[in-house]
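Suppose you are handed only these lines of text.
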Amino acid sequence: MRSKDDLCLICNLYKSDKTNSHFIPAGLLKSNIGERNYEEAYMIGVSEQAPITDYFGRSNLKNTDPEIKQNPHAADYIFCSKCEDKLAELENEFVPYLNSLKKKFAGKQDNVLVFGDLNTLRFKVFVYSLIYRLNLQSVLKNLLTGIDFHLFNKLRLIISNKFAGLDYLVDTSINFSVFASLNNEYDYSMNFVGINTFFINPLLMVNEFHIVPYIPPFPLINSSFESAFKHYQNLDGLTNKQVSIYNVETEKWLTVHEHLVNYQAYQFRTIRIGQLMRKTKQTFEECQQKLYNLAEKIHLETSKPFGISYDVAFKKLIE
Ligand SMILES: [Zn+2]
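From them, the structure of the protein bound to zinc ion can be written out as follows.
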């Protein structure tokens, strides 16, 4: 557990005095779109040992626990006020852009949107901050890093140099692709946020945006998933000297999404809930809540990563 006396996880200089810091900008979470207390949030784990963490707002019917849980996408005492303010500046600049892509793509023939009017350096630092914070969430919650630890530290240093106004020390050599789904069938009622390791390079999910850091000499795609993810090799979406965002067609997006969410995370959870249902003859919701509550209890009591606690809880309940 972190306290306000710990150092900020961006600048490493000031005390992390801020509470309720978002790993993901609130403007990119779907809870802003739905009614606040009815939100559902899912954090996708990086491996089978770290399944998804779900969170239901207090008025959501799936929330049968009167105790209000903290949103997994926010945490206390991770950043200082200064860094939090700088993050807010980047978010105010780029989140409205990302949220208005559908309008910007309208009427365009090709699937790549190139922004000439954005500050490339700042946009890159913004995306670095997303990658950094998503991985930080995984490290703090599950004690697992989804990206190479050197890269993780390097991103922190880049962000911290930018925030200190040391632009000449800001290394923008880490490239990435940003893919977006602009389809109308996208499920806007849930958050799909997390790191996925289908790729040799990790894929970061921020709802309808996928970010893939491109780290030479590794190939972008793990060859066993080539058929579902082939279009992600399209390097037109690679952000280099300009800001480009690649629009993924609905059908392809759905295929990718199914792989990412259903296979790796959802299946992991439903298989276990299914086994509990057969044993206890209780409903899906009841079993889900029971499993979650026990996992959270174990997590808080033992400080074991949530994913491990979830598995311990499952074993206890199925015995
Ligand atoms: Zn700081």
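What can we learn from it? Residues 264-318 form one domain. The helical segments are 81-99, 101-105, 120-142, 149-163, 226-229, 250-280, 284-302, 306-318.
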